[in-house]
Amino acid sequence: MTARTTWSMIALMLLSATFAGCGIEGPEGREQIQPAVQPFLNAPGSRNDNDRNRLPSEFLVHQIDEAKNTLDVCIYGFSKQNIIDAVIRAYDRGVEVRVAGDARHLQYRAHGYEALVDRQIPMQVGNQFHIMHNKFFIIDDRFVWVGTGNITSTGFGRNNNNWVYIDSEPVAADFKAEFDQMFEGRFSKAKHRIDNGERYQVGDTDVEVYFSPQEDAMGVIREELDKVHTSIHFQIFAFTKDEVGSDFIKKHDRFMRENAEIDPNFRDKPVTEWPKKVVGLLDRSQVHGNGQYHEGYRLAARGVPMRLDANENSRLPGDYQAGGGRLHTKTMILDYGTPDARVVTGSFNWSSAATISNDEVLLVLRGERVVESFMDGFREMWSLSRTLDGGWCYYMEPDENGERPTCSKEAGPGSVVISEVHWDGWNGEPDPSDHTDTVRDEVSNDEFIELYNPTDRPINMSMWTITGGDDFKLGFTPGTVIEPGEYFLVLDHNVVPYSEGDPQRGNHAFLNPDFVLNMANDPRFPRLNLKNLGFYLDLRDATGEVIDEAGDHGPPFWGGRKTVGDGVVNYSMERKIGADGSAGDGTKAGSWKASSVDRGGQNVHPDYRDFIMATPGEPNSP
User: Fold this and answer.
1) Torsion angle of alpha carbons 62, 66, 70, 75, nearest 10°?
2) In 10 A of CB 562, how many CB atoms?
3) What global pTM score does this model have?
4) Residues near 564 by Cβ (< 8 Å), separated by ≥ 6?
5) Residues 6 or more apart from 31 whose CB is under 8 A from it?
6) HSE-up of 232 (CA within 13 Å, CB side)?
7) Beta bridge partners of 540
8) Kind plus residue range of the DSSP H or E element containing 539
9) Where are the beta strands (DSSP E) in 205-337?
């Protein structure tokens, strides 16, 4: 018996308890087993030394080694050596092997792709302007392996992922039709929608399959969310799709009202025990990397209970972007514990790219056994995770005295105040991005918000947010700290307006920001958009607690443009702050005043100081 065969049998013995219910006992019983769906969830743990190998790659290798006739491989990342070797072994023994892959991975000479090229295994790559993001295998036109994880050592061993193994010829035929299109050179929007039924009964599991972009996978997600009536448990890598965030918020708000009627004391319980709930796990690297576009900020502002993944199983411990250490799943468990419980999973991130341009697959799985497997995985990750406020504080580097900045749970209302707002963004300049007429409108978004820390401790504002009530404004990215006594300047932008094809030359009104919302000053990106009527702002910590407020939803109390002599002067609205750092109720006009400087402060650009009266980033006027 060869070493390879010995290992395959050992792996199957270790997996026997898992697959006994599916009848997968070895190659000799493969033709007789009943159609089934088997989930695989890996366990990378929280660091390098507490992971557990649940043998998903070993199982896939065994299945590839048992392929008799055909093997279709659809891959994004491809560097898991035991799987690369298994694919090559299948090719060498005469199995018809075909590969559809991602153009850039081939262009960058990724290890697994190079191995396929060296052996001249038939391969087609595409989607060079976006990504071919699928990860599935079709074995003998009957067995399908598909999931969230890339076929890499990181995907199987360091990132949290899940996969399913499906024994069903009709499901395999659906995947094969998708594969054939890509193997023939049609990727992304060039693919055609093929009516293969999309819904299949496979043993005790109902399986739905949708390919993106041609089969409206995002529409399917939103339809499933609309039907939710008890719970959403989510775990997500890339989450930038506004519509999904809005659907979560809508359900959360409704469930909070219903929970108050079911159990007035529900908030005293852990969130996972609330009668109805939207709860989720976020990948830290994506919250950090996607900035304002990550929906986690908006959900945090609305009080949706979420936690940060605690996976630090990275190639460079302490650096969760060094390779590994990521929550890479894209999974929802909907209406758990009800007859209509279901799992939504696959390669499909909740993003515009996945919706309109990437090659992706989305699965909807119904069946008590399968749902329970995914829920067990959610519980395991939840038990290891960290709260939003505690997690970001944990990851902050201590100062020279070994102290970390104050966390949300220690800060509380009034620990940071909204100290000055320049809500009228007029600066007298023509707007180069306005192409609607021969006379351009003047710039109206040179706005800022200033925050003040009256305490004697630095405060960690990671994932704090500023909203206009229901109107989300911005979220502070991880690592944002306001120092004691600091006047912290938040700008809409710090370059002149973007105009297609024109250089961004010229001046803008404010200098030396601590945080910039729209770095490109591009109208397609988020803006402060402070309201000249119905003015209101609130500052919320990472748990959604209101720390401070400004305005009462009516016109701003003070400031704005006024005619002075022959010209126009634009005033900011300043908070009255006592010598002890105290500030009155920000929703009352008496707590504010118009800036009383006779020339703009040091952080107003010199070209604007004669007509913009404000003190951004420094103490307010007397």
Assistant:
1) 0
2) 12
3) 0.91
4) none
5) none
6) 32
7) 465, 546
8) strand 537-540
9) 205-212, 231-236, 277-282, 306-308, 330-334
Cβ atoms within 10 Å of 337's Cβ, excluding its own: 12
Contact call for residues 76 and 134 (beta carbons, < 8 A): yes
How far is it, in rounded angstroms, from Cα 404 to Cα 211? 46
Residue 232's beta-bridge partner residues? Answer: 278, 334
User: At how many degrees (to 10) do helices 81-92 and 56-65 cross?
Assistant: 10
H-helix or E-strand spanning residue 170: helix 169-183
Q: Which two tokens stand for residue 29?
A: 């019983």
Q: Based on DSSP, count helices (H) and strands (E) in the chain, helices before strands.
A: 15, 31
What pLDDT score does 435 carry? 56
Q: How far is CA 448 from CA 292, 365, 420, in A?
A: 17, 47, 8
Place of tokens 């998903």: 56
Q: What is the predicted pLDDT for the residue at 322?
A: 59
* Residue in this structure with the two tokens 């850039």, named with its chain if needed: 104
The 10 Å CB-count burial string (b at 16+, else e) for 287-301 is bbebbbbbbbbbbbb
The answer to whether the beta carbons of residues 443 and 427 sit under 8 Å apart is yes
Give dist(CA 443, CA 508) in Å, integer. Answer: 10
User: How far is CA 196 from each of CA 137, 171, 176, 201, 240, rounded to the nearest angstrom?
Assistant: 18, 9, 11, 13, 30
Half-sphere exposure of 94 (CA within 13 A, CB side): 2
Q: Where are the beta strands (DSSP E) in 283-416?
A: 306-308, 330-334, 342-346, 360-366, 386-387
DSSP helix/strand/coil, 421: strand
Alpha-carbon gap, residue 540 to 463, rounded angstroms: 9
Cα distances (angstroms) measured from residue 280 to each of 83, 232, 259, 545: 32, 8, 18, 18
Averages of pLDDT over each 10 residues, the chain, 622 residues: 42 45 43 77 79 88 98 97 98 98 93 96 95 98 98 94 97 97 97 88 97 97 98 97 97 98 96 98 91 93 95 71 82 98 98 97 98 97 92 82 84 96 88 59 88 96 93 92 97 77 72 91 84 94 95 97 93 96 96 97 95 97 94
Region for 140 from its dihedrals, namely left if φ exceeds 0, alpha if ψ lies in -120 to 50, beta otherwise:
left
Q: Are 163 and 39 in contact (CB under 8 A)?
A: yes
Q: Token pair 């191995």 is at which residue?
A: 115
Is residue 220 within 8 Å of 210, Cβ to Cβ? yes
| Residue closest to 247 by CA, chosen among 288, 309, 302 | 302
State the amino acid at position 93 in one-letter form: R
Is 162 strand, coil or helix?
strand
| 591 Cβ contact list (under 8 Å, min separation 6) | 575, 576, 583, 584, 585
Contact 471, 574 (CB under 8 A): no
- H/E run at residue 18: helix 3-19
Which pair of tokens denotes residue 125? 């790559």
What's residue 33's pLDDT? 55
